[in-house]
Write the structure tokens for this entry.
Amino acid sequence: MTISDTFKIAVEGLYTNKSRSLLTVLGIVIGITSIILMMSIGQGAEALIIGEISGLGAETIVIRPGKEPTGPSDLGETLFADSLTAKDIAALQRKSNVPHLIGLTPALIVPGGVSYEGETFSPSILGISGEFFADAFNVYPSSGVLYTEGDIRQNASVAVIGTRVVEKLFSTSDPLGEYIKIKDRKFRVIGVFPKKGQVAFFNIDQLVIIPYTTA
């Protein structure tokens, strides 16, 4: 049997069994399309995660609460640890423990929203060192100032906010010097970040930062 005969028989078979041929082709197309989509989604997610992490810089380490479990008895304590302590911070600041440390800040995520004269918004609220945050993410207030280490030591009620927060709470008015409310506590707005969008794990436009001691 020649190649032309084989081809002729194949074509006749496809023509004779139209429905079966159509379903077979459809299955192949769907299968190939699914594989391409899954690979594209996987590569996109990988690129997103790498982009988020690289935004922090290659010399930045994030330390989360918890410890390496030594057995079943302390597994629960490891899983449900919810806070680092001042003692942990002091230990990390000692040069004998971390000799090449350049900077360090505690960071706390504060759940809830913010309000101003009847307007409410749910941004990301972060308790952190203002100077450390600005240096780490290369974002500084376009108007106003950052709070200082003195504000942190005094548990000051001050905040720096993003442009989206300004739009939602203040519309076109100047937010500097005004007081927003977070969990029934008033915070004076002392700075506004420029429109920046997503930087590492944060959308700067929808962010409110306050001293970590106050948080």
